[in-house]
Each structure stands twice: as structure tokens, then as C-alpha cells.
């Protein structure tokens, strides 16, 4: 982020700033707007391609093309199959889909995820939690929508699920969760 250009390079004792300099200083490096979406219901997909998680998207219209957007996603997820499967999580929107691992042969690349055990561990009984942070430079003043995306993969079948464990029996022993995505416009 740039320093306001009308400010002096250094200050001396007793120096008085002009009104324009004060306004630049007041607007520098601050949060201009915050938008949040909270998802309280569940989501499930057997898709092996990334899809938006319904209800876990948020739109923001930057006030200047030079401003940054800080994206913070808090996601609870799991997989319904017990072995040889995975659930991948990533962001989409602006440039956030670049926040993934480098390509590595046939491996699925994402920002985070989980893999169920290959030795019949029943990982579907639990859930995983991740918080993704990405500082985007969308370079636009048009509305930009950010989304959490997920996909299922692996020979074990099943589905990637959000806001629940893989096993979702109607019992007090099983939990439901909430997830959120929040965007902050930060002045340049």
C-alpha cells in the first residue's frame, strides 16, 4: 500500500499539516467497508470439480481501483466416505483463485482440505475447520463476488460436506456448525 503522496517525507517539530494532507492521512491504511455472509445450514456435493458453496459468497464494490480486498473465510467441512477420499477447499473471485498450491502431477491443488484415511479409519465421524486469508488486488470499482468453493475426490466416493460431520445421524452426539466469509476494503 502506498503512502499518501501529499505528505512530507519527514516532519519537524511544530510543523502544521494542510487540510489536504490531513485528509490524505485520515484516509490512509484504513478499513473502508466490511461485508460478511454467515452460512448456518449445510451443503453437500459429490462434484469432482470445484463448485461454489451455496450461501457462502459475498459481494463488495471497491471505492477505488487501487484499494485492496482482504478476504477471510472460516469454513467447517468434512467428507461422507470413510477412506480413500478428499475434500478440497479454496476461494474464488477477484484473484483469490490463485491462492492454491503449485500444480503437482495428478494431485488436486487447493488452499486447504482433508483426506480420509486409507486404512479404514473412520474420518467421516469428525470434521475439519480452516480459516483462509487472502489479500486481493482486484483493480476495479465494479462489484466483485468472492466465494468459498469445494470439491470431492478419490476412489472412495461420497460427498464433500460443509457445516456438518461426514456422518450426520440425528442425535445429540453429532454436531452442526456455522461458516462465514468476510471481505474488508482496505484503502491504498
Characteristic terms for this protein:
188 residues; Jelly Rolls; six-stranded antiparallel beta sheet; four-stranded antiparallel beta sheet; elongated
Provide structural commentary.
With 188 residues, the chain is mainly beta. The chain has a single domain (31-186), classed as Jelly Rolls (Sandwich). The chain is 5% helix and 40% strand. The chain has one helix and ten strands; from the N terminus they run αββββββββββ. Strands 1, 2, 4, 7, 9 and 10 form a six-stranded antiparallel sheet that branches. The model has no long low-confidence stretch (mean pLDDT 87).
CA gyration radius, whole angstroms: 21 Å
Q: Under the CATH scheme, which class?
A: Mainly Beta
The description of the largest β-sheet is:
6 strands, antiparallel
Strand fraction band?
35-45%
Mean of the pLDDT scores?
87
Low-confidence stretches: none
What is the number of strand segments? Answer: 10
Distance between the first and last residues' Cα: 5 Å
CATH architectural category: Sandwich
| Whole-number count of domains | 1
Which descriptor suits the 3D outline? elongated
